[in-house]
Amino acid sequence: MPSSEATYEGQAAVPHRLVADEGSIRAPEGDVFGPPQGKLHILRQLGMIVPFTLIASIGNGMVKPISSYLALNFFARNHTGLHPGDIHCELDVTSSYCQQALVDVQMLVTVMSLAMPVAQLIHLPAAGVFSDAYGRRKALILVYTLSNLALLFSDLFVFFDAPLWFAWVITPFVNEQVMTAVLSAAGVDILDKPSRAAGIGLVHALDTIAYVCGLLLGLQMGMRASFLLATVGFVVSLLFLLTLYPESLPPEKRSQLNLRSLMPWDSLPILWRNSVLQHLSLVMMLSAFIDVGTSRVLPF
């Protein structure tokens, strides 16, 4: 890979360049490069996004599905005299104290479901503005670290019997959706225009595959081992971001950060800028409504 800007010559050339002063990778200027390239070519363009997505998603898949049982174990303490170490609703949810804890968990889920849209309205646009001003790499390091604070607080509960409240408070504000938004922006920076939709879709497909692999691995390992390995994966992923992950947004394309742009209502008009965005926003809202409604009953 060249260490300075090189002249783009023909369709056969690798459609990205390395900026020497920041080590950033970005797509060549211009909008049209012909039809989308093959999957292998797109994977090369995506570069370090691919291994980071795989490592992070495996760890997420190992603990995300069983996190609901952490809440059951936590609330079940209020309905039994058993020692906390002897409560394992993840193994037998039919116990009377686990059944009573289900009511508490559903109340918690309702509260978090109401808080989530408000929190996302605040932090998602702000994360986008931050990444446009300071670059994708710094934004990704920040949001990835914050989104895993819930994992670290869950570790304290699993291994040291600490309260889970801090993990629940953090989750609506900083979660995987923020990281996905920044990664998608990085993909737009790197990929040539005809390949952007296919490239971002490929990243999401890899994310799902890695998540399922992590899920299967977590089911075989048990709760403590799953949280331990997921935490190790978080540390490895963070070190990967700090040492190997390149910047994709060059300085000349970054925007100026100002207080007004951080306000959540400043970004809302984009949802109805044209008819396509209006229809897309409606479809996304209906899809999220159905997805959230059905997912609430699946874990139990």
Automatic annotation (TrEMBL):
Annotated InterPro entries: MFS, MFS_trans_sf
Keywords from the UniProt entry: Membrane, Transmembrane, Transmembrane helix
One MF term in the entry's GO annotations: transmembrane transporter activity
Parts of the chain that traverse the membrane: 46-63, 139-159, 200-219, 225-245
Short name of any one Pfam family annotated for the protein: MFS_1
Recorded superkingdom: Eukaryota
Coiled-coil zones: none
Protein name: Uncharacterized protein
Organism encoding this protein: Polarella glacialis
Taxonomy of the source species: Eukaryota, Sar, Alveolata, Dinophyceae, Suessiales
